[in-house]
Amino acid sequence: MKKIVITGAAGFLGSHLAKRLIAQGNQVVGLDNFSTGRMENIAELTESPLFTCITCDVSQETTLLHSELNEAEEIYHLASPASPKYYQANPFSTILVNTAGTKHMLELAKRNQAKLLFSSTSEVYGDPEVHPQPETYRGHVNTWGPRACYDEAKRLGEVLCYEYWHRYGVEVKIARIFNTYSAGLRNDDGRVISNFVTQALACRDMTVYGDGSQTRSFCYVDDTVRALELMMESDRATGETINIGSPVETTIIQVAQWIKELSHSDSRITFSPLPADDPRLRRPVIDKARKLLGWEPRVGLSEGLCLTIHAYRKQMALNGGD
């Protein structure tokens, strides 16, 4: 049994990871300030003696005073808003959790001689001029725009990891996560699949931003979580940045049409102006993940969408159709 810290434990990725690690018999200490995370995501875990939940803000240095963090062997630093809707509404806290919060978790890793995985993002590539994107690509990011608070904070978080690895020998691993989805996403999350599924099941207009020709690479949450675990376990991943995502590229309009068909919805597909700095293309090169981790996604988009639609429909029925 290992003692493992997860920041953002009540969030989308964090809660999935916490459930998986506890099912394996590990002791998990979850940290969350519940700004975007939800207690219902971890409700089933609160009954487990293997789970401890601490309500705190990892951007505050006082977080390090919690004795429950002592002797932790692994740290998954996942805390951060990830939806443009939420990080644009809270830019300063987004910057702080990925910079000051990252530094505090690195200090904890240094103190405990623990391994740390930092959840970075495909957003570090910005609106890419290289396609698909390998880890060696340095990105095309606008520092003066509504997405910069997230994109640049993640880039600086990577720099902090680099410095702690080179200066102090902290075993860091950086996962550049591409679009991840499943039913665990809040239906008001604002990301494309949660938006489309919620709108389709409610028979509301499905809103496509731009003309829908922009592309994304969607990875089901089970595959992403499995990749994070493999990264943490692998010594070969130490000091590395690794793309985690699906190498299958899909246009947004295709996703809307598939969700409409799979949900048997009568919704209309409508179009609105594209938000500022919205990337036109997004697809990872995952050769490094294949080589170092033996990982690639197993759940195809069609299967994942069916699972997601089924779970959203079930939840809406429980909520009386809301």
Automatic annotation (TrEMBL):
Coiled coil: none
Residue intervals of the NAD(P)-binding domain: 6-305
Membrane-related topology note: Single-pass type II membrane protein
EC primary class: lyase
InterPro entries reported for this sequence: NAD(P)-bd_dom, NAD(P)-bd_dom_sf, UXS-like
TM regions (residue ranges): none
Cofactors required: NAD(+)
UniProt keyword annotations, A-Z: Decarboxylase, Golgi apparatus, Lyase, Membrane, NAD, Signal-anchor, Transmembrane, Transmembrane helix
Subcellular location: Golgi apparatus, Golgi stack membrane
SUPFAM superfamilies in the record: NAD(P)-binding Rossmann-fold domains
EC number: 4.1.1.35
A Pfam cross-reference name: GDP_Man_Dehyd
Pathway named in the protein's UniProt entry: Nucleotide-sugar biosynthesis; UDP-alpha-D-xylose biosynthesis; UDP-alpha-D-xylose from UDP-alpha-D-glucuronate: step 1/1
Major site of localization recorded for this protein: Golgi
Family listed: Belongs to the NAD(P)-dependent epimerase/dehydratase family. UDP-glucuronic acid decarboxylase subfamily.
Protein name, as recorded: UDP-glucuronate decarboxylase
